[in-house]
Structures are given as structure tokens and as C-alpha cells.
Design a protein that fits this description.
Strand content: 5-15%
Shape: elongated
Number of strands: 4
Strand order of the largest sheet: 1-2-3-4
Helix content: 40-55%
Structural class: alpha+beta
Number of helices: 8
């Protein structure tokens, strides 16, 4: 399977798993990423999809010229997985800042996968490792302008990209660990230090001045509170 398919007609066999996949996408994301991911899936930004045992991989055209690679990995099991059973990976910059939320490219992958499940619910078993696609099924979905032997090439391409993603994440982890080990040096510490041999000036005690409060009661209350709690420590 390569290019995402668009459902046609209202009577599709996989309405239940398709809906459950969209619910799972909502659970894994925040409203902003969910909205943008749905738009990516709707406007055709998902260029390729490959559904294999344990992994759904998509090429998603984002803001840069080279498409992003988003993968949806799942543990073996039956039926629609829970959130804890799914691991999402993407090589976009947002991948390192998820805060436990999937990026928009992963959400687009899930919505395109939902369309595939809508037309062919058996793909859920393929993804979860309960059944493999027959070779004839692949041939049936090949288009006239895409040769059948193009699918292995695309799989190799996506695998190379996934390997590069893993290597990049390992390098970033090592760089982060190295920064943690390095001793922090304040770049302006020398500027703020008093020159050698100099002494600090004597600062006299400050006398409390007359409180000239603003006319507005709320501002006057704030200023009185500041005067009551303000403390200067020159040491």
C-alpha cells in the first residue's frame, strides 16, 4: 500500500475502527495539533502510507521541502489499542517538545490510517500482528502509474529514514547529557564583579518618605501593600 486512499460512499465496512482511531488521535494530542493534523490529512499532505505488522509509516509534507516521516508503532494485541499501547515517532522539530502529545504529522497519519480502516477494517489486524496482507492485496491497490516493485523501494527508503531518526535522537540525548555534565559558567560574571582593590560605597539608611497615594482607591491599596512588604537588603 502506498498512496492514501479516499473513502467513497456512506456504507463502509470499517466505520467502528475508523471512529475509534480518530478518538485515539484526540486522546494523544492537544486541540491545536489535532486541528492541524486533521487539516493535513484532509488537504492531501500525507503523500505515502505503509501499513505493516506493528508499524504504520507515513510521509507527510510539512513546511519544509523534504517530507517528514511519522510512524505509529503498536504492541501486539487484539482490536483497537489503548493509548499506552501506541508509540508515535516523527522526525519533525516538534517531536522533542511533545509534552506527551503527538505532533500534527502523527495526527495526520492517524486520520489517514482511519480512512484506510474505514474501507478495509482487516488492516487493524495487520497492524496489531494478527494477520498479514496477502501479496494479491498489495497488487490490487497498486495504481497503473506506480509499478508493483515500487513498494519494496519505498519501504527501504522509509526504513533508512527511520534509522536516521533513531541515530539523530541518540545524538541529541548524548549532547544533552554532555551539557548536563559541563559546569555552568556565567558569561557576565566578570562584568558584574567589583574590580580588585575597590570597596563598596557606604549606603546611608533611607528614611521613610511621605506616602503620596494615588486618588484611585484600588491603586492606593496596592501601593500601601508594597510599602508594607518592601524590604531592601544591601548586603
Amino acid at each position: 500500500m502506498s498512496r492514501p486512499r479516499k473513502p467513497f460512499g456512506a456504507q463502509q465496512p470499517g466505520r467502528l475502527p475508523a471512529t475509534m482511531m480518530k478518538v485515539l488521535a484526540a486522546e494523544m494530542s492537544d486541540p491545536q495539533r489535532l486541528r492541524r493534523g486533521k487539516q493535513y490529512a484532509k488537504d492531501g499532505s500525507v503523500l505515502d502510507i505503509i501499513i505493516e505488522t506493528g508499524t504504520v509509516t507515513c510521509e507527510v509534507q510539512g513546511s519544509r521541502s523534504t517530507p517528514y516521516i511519522a510512524s505509529l508503532e503498536v504492541s501486539p494485541g487484539d482490536g483497537m489499542p489503548l493509548r499506552r499501547d501506541v508509540h508515535a515517532v516523527c522526525n519533525c522539530p516538534d517531536n522533542d517538545n511533545w509534552d506527551d502529545h503527538a505532533c500534527k504529522h502523527v495526527i495526520a497519519t492517524m486520520f489517514v490510517f482511519s480512512d484506510e480502516l474505514l474501507m478495509e477494517p482487516e488492516l487493524l489486524d495487520v497492524w496489531r500482528g494478527n494477520e498479514r496482507l496477502e501479496h494479491d492485496t498489495d497488487d490490487e491497490h497498486d495504481t497503473d502509474d506506480e509499478p508493483a516493485d515500487d513498494l519494496p523501494r519505498r519501504r527501504r527508503h522509509l526504513q533508512l529514514v527511520r534509522d536516521g531518526m533513531e541515530q539523530g535522537r541518540a545524538q541529541r540525548r548524548e549532547q544533552h547529557a554532555q551539557r548536563e555534565r559541563e559546569e555552568f559558567v556565567d558569561p557576565i560574571a566578570d562584568v558584574l564583579q567589583a574590580p580588585d582593590g575597590s570597596t563598596l560605597p557606604e549606603i546611608p539608611n533611607l528614611e521613610r518618605g511621605d506616602e503620596r497615594l494615588p486618588r484611585r482607591p484600588e491603586l492606593a491599596a496596592i501601593l500601601r501593600d508594597v510599602h508594607r512588604h518592601l524590604h531592601l537588603d544591601w548586603d
